[in-house]
User: Fold this.
Amino acid sequence: MAKKVTNPTQSLKIPQVIILSGKILAFISPKFATTFAAKLFTTPIKHKIPKREYEMDNKSGKNKIMVHAINKSILTYQYGKSEQKILLVHGWSGRGTQLFKIADALLQNGYSTVSFDAPAHGKSEGNTTIMSEFIASILEIEKQYGPFEIAIGHSLGGMSVLNAVKDGLKVKKAIVIGSGDIVQDILDEFIFKLGLNQKFSERLRFLFEDKYQVKMDDFSAYRAAQKIQIPVLVIHDKDDPEVPAEAGINIHKHLQNGTLFLTEGLGHRKILGNQNVIKKILDFIKTT
Assistant:
């Protein structure tokens, strides 16, 4: 097992007023406190699209599609017109245009990309979501826009890509960047940040498993990795303050055909625009 990983879905520091509210609820009613924690955990922050992403946003063909498995609609972005298509998947509180530098490089090398705002993210509807809905969105997008040559995911998007491949997404290769790994560690870290007793981590897991009728650990990235045979490039920064490199190292260890590329000094988000990282991605895609 890898060391505990920081929650890729809850990287921002939790305000003290929310921590205090959680502690008060825990004193009054553990059930209320667990429900409160679940709401926080599943509510992403919708950031305003930054100017650097305007070009991809403006030049992409946009379409709202229904993800029938979860009965939610999402916004998709078709960037470029090549028949060689690559799927891009953002992380928690991200957007379909967040991997724009990677997308631009892919366009310059003869590919087009399809990306999307996950449920409750970007311009898609809703306020709450969970990783299983990222995965369902990926599989629906494959039905409507596939086949894809490659799938690339960042952070929670990386975990989702690995799980989607495990669940039947047909791609020749996959790339995960700054991906989280063990779901229970993610829950533990979130409860720790919320200032609650660790018993609430188990309560939170039980709540999610009952609500979504899934086993949370089944979504751990290392478990998905064990069942994947295609080549997978794992990219992680040694100085990532949100998802420590041990997560990527552990994912790579469980892959049958994995390549590990560790960077330094790029953190969790700058890694998406680094030219050495982009070159590594392109080389991996082009290698037969």
In short: Residues 16-45+65-286 form a domain with the Rossmann fold fold (CATH 3.40.50.1820).
